[in-house]
């Protein structure tokens, strides 16, 4: 008595599996393509506009394809976040070479900055502009303060007041800096700053640091007059000049009165 073969062993079974696989993959691709079609067209236009702006304003230093040149480094792989930070804070286009770029009035609108960022991001994968959920300042300021003191305070001061570095460089004051630019600086490491990728500090950690800086901005120092919040040097100088000066003045006055 012959037993009936299971379906998977029948001659047409392999063809049926291949057909179902092609149908599922093809249908899924078609659905996904249809869903993002409008976004792709918009992004393509934005990238094209960004390339035109890049060629007119950046290519002389960074190369026509972002490959770098004598006047500027390669931008391949720096991502949209780097462009949004450098151009969005006015540091780029740079006016002159030197130890460090300074913030300047913006040269472009946010729409133009976003277009250039999209173009540079299209050259190679890199850090993206952060999502709004990490910029709202709703994180844990206590944890953020701890992370800031461990990773940032040696350059930026414990409350983000900034500080001097070597060879004419400096860590800028973070008071009033836009949350987006703080996050972008952490993931891109501009100039002298190290890169804090998601393996070093998670997006939630970065959000906590931003929350801490926002807390510092919004609340006065509990210790009273901050003296620039630059630490013991200013406090010691204040003590020497005004504290000891007052004591010496009192001593001289008492001596004069006794005579």
Q: What is the tally of helical segments?
A: 10
Order of helices and strands: HHHHHHHEEHHH
Counting structural domains, the number is 2
Share of helical residues: 40-55%
CATH structural architecture of the largest domain: Orthogonal Bundle
- Going by CATH, what is the homologous superfamily of the largest domain? Cytochrome c-like domain
Tell me what portion of residues adopts beta-strand conformation. Answer: under 5%
Q: Segments where pLDDT lies below 50 for 5+ residues?
A: 29-42
Global Rg: 29 Å
> Which oligomerization state do the chains in this entry correspond to?
single chain
Q: What would you note in describing this structure?
A:
With 259 residues, the chain is an all-alpha fold. It has 2 domains: 42-123, Cytochrome c-like domain (Cytochrome Bc1 Complex, Chain D, domain 2), CATH 1.10.760; 132-233, Orthogonal Bundle (Cytochrome Bc1 Complex, Chain D, domain 2), CATH 1.10.760.10. Helix content is 54%, strand content 2%. It is built from 10 helices and 2 strands; from the N terminus they run αααααααββααα. It has helices at 13-35, 37-57, 59-62, 79-88, 110-123, 141-151, 153-156, 179-188, 203-218, 232-258, and strands at 163-164, 170-171. Strands 1-2 form a two-stranded antiparallel sheet. Strand 1 and strand 2 (170-171) form a beta hairpin. Helix 4 crosses helix 8 (179-188). The longest helix has 27 residues, at 232-258. It is elongated, with a radius of gyration of 29 Å. The model is unreliable at 29-42 (pLDDT under 50).
């Amino acid at each position: 008595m012959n037993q009936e073969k299971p379906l998977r062993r029948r001659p047409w079974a392999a063809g049926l599996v291949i057909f179902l696989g092609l149908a599922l993959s093809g249908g899924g691709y078609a659905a996904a393509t249809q869903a993002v079609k409008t976004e792709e067209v918009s992004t393509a236009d934005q990238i094209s506009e960004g390339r035109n702006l890049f060629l007119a304003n950046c290519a002389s230093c960074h190369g026509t394809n972002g490959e770098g040149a004598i006047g500027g480094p390669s931008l391949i792989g720096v991502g949209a976040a780097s462009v949004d930070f450098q151009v969005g804070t006015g540091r780029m286009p740079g006016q002159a070479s030197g130890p460090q770029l300074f913030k300047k009035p913006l040269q472009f609108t946010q729409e133009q900055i976003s277009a250039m960022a999209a173009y540079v991001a299209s050259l190679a994968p890199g850090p993206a502009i952060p999502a709004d959920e990490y910029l709202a300042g709703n994180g844990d300021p206590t944890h953020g303060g701890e992370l800031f003191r461990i990773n940032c305070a040696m350059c930026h001061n414990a409350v983000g007041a900034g500080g001097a570095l070597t060879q004419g460089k400096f860590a800028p004051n973070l008071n009033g800096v836009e949350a987006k630019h703080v996050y972008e600086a952490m993931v891109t490491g501009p100039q002298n700053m190290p890169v804090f990728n998601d393996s070093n500090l998670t997006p939630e950690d970065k959000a906590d640091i931003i929350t801490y800086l926002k807390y510092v901005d919004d609340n006065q120092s509990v210790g009273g007059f901050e003296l620039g919040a630059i630490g013991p040097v200013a406090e010691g100088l204040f003590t020497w000049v005004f504290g000891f000066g007052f004591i010496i003045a009192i001593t001289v006055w008492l001596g004069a009165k006794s005579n």
